[in-house]
Amino acid sequence: MDKLVINGATKLKGDVVISGAKNAAVAILPATLLIDGICTIENLPHISDVTLYCEILESLGAKITWNTPHEITIDTRNIHSAQAPLEITSKFRASYYLIGSLLGRCKEAVVGLPGGCNLGARPIDQHIKGFEALGAKVDVGQGKITASAKKLTGTSIYMDIVSVGATINVMLASVLAEGTTTIDNAAKEPHIVDVANFLNTMGADIRGAGTDMIKIHGVPKLTGNATYSVVPDQIEAGTFMLAAVASRGDITIHNCITKHLESVTAKIIEMGANVQEDGDTIRVWCNKRPNRATVKTLPYPGFPTDLQPQIGVALAIADGNSTINESIWESRFQYTYELNKMGAKITAQGKSAFFEGVKSLSGSPVFATDLRAGAALIIAGIVANGTTEVHNLDHIDRGYENIEEKFRKLGAKIKRVSE
Ligand code: EPZ
Q1: pTM of the model
Q2: Rg of the chain's alpha carbons, rounded to an integer?
Q3: 2-19+232-418: CATH topology
Q4: Residue 126 Cβ < 6 Å to ligand 1
Q5: How far is CA 115 from CA 124, 175, 241, 370, in A?
Q6: At the fourth CATH level, which superfamily is domain 22-229?
Q7: Low-confidence ranges of the chain (pLDDT < 70)
Q8: Minimum-distance ligand 1 atom for the alpha carbon of 370
């Protein structure tokens, strides 16, 4: 196992280029199973969730050529299995997209129950509700989900809860169904729009992605024969915006879509940071201790839950007392115990955490409990005085490409060493 050794405190300064979005890539890759043809995908982030997904697709019969570390050409004309390797699918959350895509392509799917970040119960009842509404029979047992359908018929589905995964999964299952499917109370995240744009580029007929009502007109097949570029990662961009605030630095973030970050921009300006937008670039600088703030995470376009730990670091050292209300996940404050080891004064209770701002943090060995908590602990190590060791890097490597390299180019004293 590796660890990151970080010596702070450093004010981050310079430029960073954002990679393709993890949460778009891990849906677009399984979506290729719906294509009876060949396609090319550009701007893939080179992260373990992506390479893991490519292994699964090849085990199902796909032929993948890596043109560059960020671009693949994939041939999904000969899919010979609808059973995903259970030992791999349990390693991450997004493996559940295999159900929707295999059901759509093969009218059957056998997929291991998903793993992924430990954020509390992560039910998939809305996914199952959608598949059954389309005419599938779904069983969950022996650690796997088995779905099958004689035919998939378009229908209207109302999501009881706004769910990114369920919205995408039902979209995948309905692309080749007979008739029209409407998903009401759909999630609106940028990666949902990206998956819909990818599918439409390959021959699907999906309208309304990005709103709370998505209409999918079933088509007989997706021919592919096209190239698609994955959207820039809104969460990676937000991670570096918040690193600029917490470290009182000055970072210019390239290759991002400013519209996707409006809630983050508004919040950091409230905290006293400066923001300058110019096309696909955002510059964030903060010359003083951040102001206190109140944060409530919400589905897009609200403040993203996936940036909650990262803003938590800035609030831990803010001038005054702050509150975070985590409305999406029931257990996403584990990182606060790690920050308290570094001298923070945070009390987490259920879905809320109370921050008593301290002047500074001090280095300590800390343990990443999930992907975004890991990113937050790296930021904490950069702003803390002294040496911090961040353990459990496999969480971080799932979703951030060369994160220590990107921070090092911004001036961080950070290196990866083996335990
Ligand atoms: C996606 O998870 C992301 N993961 C998560 O990002 C992100 O935190 C989350 O969306 C919210 O934005 C991927 O895209 C791979 P949900 P997902 O279904 O789809 C409840 C990261 O750091 N729910 O939108 O699993 C659920 O319990 C990861 O990149 C049901 O009750 O999230 C939660 O409270 C962490 N029943 C809420 O809905 C269901 O059937 C939102 O979950 C599905 C979800």
Answers
A1: 0.97
A2: 21
A3: UDP-n-acetylglucosamine1-carboxyvinyl-transferase; Chain (3.65.10)
A4: yes
A5: 12, 26, 29, 12
A6: Enolpyruvate transferase domain (3.65.10.10)
A7: 116
A8: 22
